[in-house]
Each structure stands twice: as C-alpha cells, then as structure tokens.
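Lab manual, section 2.4: Encoding a predicted structure.

Procedure: take the sequence of the chain (152 residues), apply the prediction step described in section 2.3, and record the output as structure tokens. A sample record is shown.
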Amino acid sequence: MRKAVDLLASVPRPLPRAAALEDLGRLLRNHDPAAAVMALNGAFTVYAEAGAGADLGRIRILLRDLGVRRRRVSAPAQKPSTRSLTPAELRVVQQVTEGATNREIADRLFLSPHTVATHIRHAFAKLGVRSRTELAQLILTDQLVPSATEVR
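Recorded output:
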C-alpha cells in the first residue's frame, strides 16, 4: 500500500493520492496508530485542498477514533469571476446588464429566446447570483473579477 501512495505522489490528480493515503491509514490504524495518523492527516490535507467535504468528514471520524481532533475546513470565499463564463454567456450577460430583455438579446445576438434563457441560467449559477438586478449590481460596482478575454 505504501508503494501505491509513493507511485501516486507524482500524479497530478490529487483525489486518487488522498484515497490511497486513506486506505493506508485504515490498514495501519490497529497495528501502527502513529503511522495511521500521519497517513490520514495527509489524506485530510489533500481532500481539504480539493474541496472534498464528504471525504473530509470521513477522515475526521477516522482521526477522532485515533484520538486526533481536526477542525472543519472551509474553502476561502472567492470573488465571482467572469472567467468561468463561456464567450456566449458573457455576451448575453453584457446585454442583460444593459437592461435588454431575453427577446431583445435573442434578436441582437441571433439566438433563440430559449438559448438566451439557458445562457442566463448558467451564468447566474456560475456567478452565484439569483436575479438580473443582482448581476447588474455586481458588474456596475466592479465586484466581478474581469475576464481576460474581451468579447466583441
């Protein structure tokens, strides 16, 4: 099992490495508790960096059984960014902030109103907003991190 952990150390995907550390911790907990704690702490760190909340909870329970208490880890709040939007979503969002209706946006961008509604729904989810007003406030008050790509 330690060989698997060593092999996965160079893999760019963190979750398989964390899973191997977790498995190693489970195997060692009855025979070498100190080594088990080290492996589980490694898994905890990797899961925390990956934002894997359910996995963190499972590791916390295993560590607690070994007498180690770990605090809940929350990901730092990130500022919403237009970088997460596709170019089409960004074009639609720009029209929304100018006050255009879905029908007007559809006519201007040569899209169907259904497609416009889909782009708006996806943009809202990605930016963490629930209304056109909230979206416009984010953009007008410069609370959005600007996109590296300009949309024409």
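Check your result against the sample. The longest helix spans residues 33-50.
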